[in-house]
Design a protein that fits this description.
Layout: H1 2-15, E1 21-24, H2 28-40, E2 45-48, H3 51-61, E3 65-69, H4 77-87, E4 92-97, H5 102-110, E5 113-118, H6 123-143, H7 152-156, H8 159-175, H9 180-201, H10 207-227, H11 235-246, H12 251-261, H13 265-274, E6 286-291, H14 294-298, H15 301-312, E7 325-330, E8 341-344, E9 347-350, H16 354-365
Parallel strand pairs: 1-2, 1-3, 3-4, 4-5, 6-7
Antiparallel strand pairs: 6-8, 8-9
Length: 374
């Protein structure tokens, strides 16, 4: 009977693509209870009794939120999370389990879970989590670039046309009194810098994006150098301005400064290495520091560090691929009464929970102000 109800729910969902929530749990009572609670709030909910059928419904209905049990026979909740993130990254996942632990929470967060509810939970907890999840799903959908038909010029663009554009640029190079070999060497050097930059950021498979990023970075450098009228005496300020725009000093930017100012690259590296305010390593827009002093350590700093690493996907000393966060550990922040403490830029957060810390990171990703947690 339960399977018949699931099939009916699936058929209904297929007819109505505006499904809000899909509940995946091998306990019928849990499925029924969640569905009734959500429907009472005016949400459209369907259920599935196991992972495979849940994934099938995700593919057919694309719900905004899924609520999935962590422990299920056959396909586990972790496997469902991984499948859902591949099918539609805008879907928000909420994990429910009767076997809660910090490790399981961290692991589920690593593969994309938005929230973690321990059974038994109150209906209000489920409703609150789902509503916040739907808001996040809507934000993700708005952030996803719309599928557009390529403009006629782009649609017709092919290898011969790209070659013609290259020939046009070569003609401009000739107009400067330079040779074809100089032009090709210049392109080769810039491509090598793009490849080095991609390897530095761990994005070697995104060659096209990195090349375009390098082009944009060098244009930023040109604007800054022009603003300072190509003055060699302004070298330090130019480096500070470049770092302010790029968050760090990548090698291709330093080489471009060297070429534009006609200053040796060795001299530029000497200055960049001397001043602590300048960074030669990739750095995120926001610095996340975890205090590991004695007071923080005994009150849970290792757990806090592990949670931050799981949520950001990086270890201390690393920067995330999108260069939003850099994670570091420090020996003491001088605020032991708040232990354990995490500091993000100039804000201190005292013993934040997994949920609170995730909300803070999300707020920084969305460039919204988030008040300090007390």
């Amino acid at each position: 009977m339960f399977l018949d109800e699931v099939a009916t729910a699936g058929a209904t969902a297929r007819r109505d693509t505006m499904t809000d929530v899909l509940v995946i749990d091998d306990e019928r009572s849990m499925c029924d209870g969640c569905r009734q609670t959500l429907e009472a709030e005016g949400l459209r909910a369907v259920t599935a009794p196991d992972g495979p059928r849940g994934v099938e419904l995700v593919e057919r209905t694309h719900p905004r939120v899924i609520v999935v049990d962590l422990k299920m026979p056959g396909m586990s909740g972790m496997e469902v999370l991984a499948k859902v993130s591949e099918i539609d990254p805008t879907i928000v996942s909420i994990v429910i389990t009767g076997y809660a632990s910090i490790d399981s929470a961290v692991e589920s967060m690593k593969i994309g879970a938005f929230d973690f509810l321990t059974k038994p939970f109150e209906p209000e907890q489920l409703i609150d989590s789902v509503k916040r999840g739907m808001e996040l799903s809507e934000t993700r959908q708005k952030a996803r670039p719309p599928a557009r038909a390529a403009p006629p010029e782009a649609a017709a663009l092919d290898a011969p046309q790209v070659a013609l554009r290259g020939l046009e640029v070569l003609g401009q190079y000739y107009s400067l009194g330079l040779k074809r070999r100089d032009f090709l060497d210049e392109l080769k050097n810039l491509e090598a810098e793009s490849r080095f930059h991609a390897e530095t950021l761990g994005r070697i498979r995104e060659k096209e994006k990195v090349v375009l990023q390098v082009v944009e970075d060098l244009r930023v450098v040109d604007e800054i150098v022009t603003r300072h009228e190509y003055r060699k005496s302004a070298l330090l300020q130019i480096l500070l301005d470049v770092q302010s725009e790029l968050n760090w000093l990548p090698r291709h930017a330093l080489k471009w400064v060297s070429r534009r100012l006609k200053v040796s690259l060795a001299s530029i590296y000497t200055i960049a290495s001397f001043y602590e305010a300048l960074s030669l390593e990739p750095r995120g827009e926001h610095l996340v520091e975890i205090c590991t002093g004695t007071a923080c350590h005994v009150r849970g700093a290792p757990r806090l560090q592990a949670t931050a690493s799981a949520l950001l996907g990086i270890e201390p000393g690393q920067t995330d691929p999108d260069q939003v966060f850099t994670l570091k550990t420090v020996h003491c922040m001088g605020c032991c009464a708040l232990a354990p403490v995490v500091k993000i830029d100039d804000r201190y957060y005292s013993n934040p929970s997994l949920r609170e810390l995730r909300k803070v990171f999300d707020s920084y990703r969305q460039k919204k102000e988030q008040p300090c947690l007390r």
